[in-house]
Amino acid sequence: MRYAETGYNLEIDLSRGSIERVETDPRLTELHLGGLGTNAKILWDRVPPEVEPFSPDNLLIFGVGLLTGTPAPSANRTIISTISPQTLLMAFSVMGGFWAPELKHAGYDRVIIRGKSASLVYLWINNDKVEIRDASHLQGKGAQETAELIRQELNEPRAQVAAIGLAGENRVYFASIEHDKSSASRLGIGAVMGDKKLKAIAVRGTKDINIARPAEFLELCNEVLEYTRWRQENPIKGVPAIIARLGAAQEMDEVDEAWHTANFAWGNARYRRKDFWTEEIAQKWEHTQKKAVRRLIACYNCPVRCGGVVSHPGLSVKRYMMKCFTKLTYTIAAMTNELEFDFRIAGYAQEYGIDGYTAPQVMAFAVELYEAGILTDQDLPGFPSSNEERFFYLLDKIVRREGIGDILANGVYWAARQIGRGAEAYDRNTIKKHEQIPIKLGTLNPIYFLWWSTGEKINITQIEGQMPQAPFATREEREEFVKDWIQVPNERFKEYILNWEPGSFPYYPPIPAVCEMVDWPETMHYIDDCTGVCAGVSSFVMKPPYHIHNFPRIISAATGLDIDEDELWKITRRNRNLLRANNVRRGLRRKDERPPEDHWKKRFPEYEAKLLEAYYEYRGWNKEGIPTKETLNQLGLDYVSEDFERRGIYNHG
Amino acid sequence: MAKTKKKIKVIRIDMDKCSGCRACEAICSAFHASPKYSSNNPARARIRLVRDPFEEIFLPVYAGEYTAAECMGRDKYVVEGKEYGECDFCRASCPSRDAFKEPDSGLPLKCDMCEDDPPQEEPLCVKWCLLDALTYEEREEEVEEEVKLDDLETGLESLVDNYGLQKVIDTVARITQKG
Question: Which of A125, A178, A228, A317 counts the most CB atoms within 10 A of its CB?
Answer without folding.
Answer: A178
